[in-house]
Amino acid sequence: QVQLVESGGGLVQAGDSLRLSCAASGRTLSIYTVGWFRQAPGKEREFVAAIATRSGSTSYADSVKGRFTISRDYAKNTVYLQMNTLKPEDTAVYFCASTARFGILAVSAQYDYWGQGTQVTVSS
Question: Do 94 and 20 contact (CB within 8 A), yes or no?
Fold first, then answer.
């Protein structure tokens, strides 16, 4: 019912910036919240940031607060993750996910649809 496609990942040096995009299609009117998650090799998938698509309210994991910014272009059905001052520990596959739920949504089980992921690698 909803399809999500991430793009914008790549290889950068510590201190550099990247902007990830998450393009949604299908039944986009059913999306109330979009979240970004990441998973590094050998680690659990962790919450990064989320945005309420209509109000623009945002939330962030403590590890990225002050460095990452989540935003959306509602008319384009696209959510962005601007990542600044990247660190080697940010290296992971980044996924976007959507849900019809709203509120405090920081765990993967609260989301219904997922993209395929995009690789972000930060060298020191």
Answer: yes
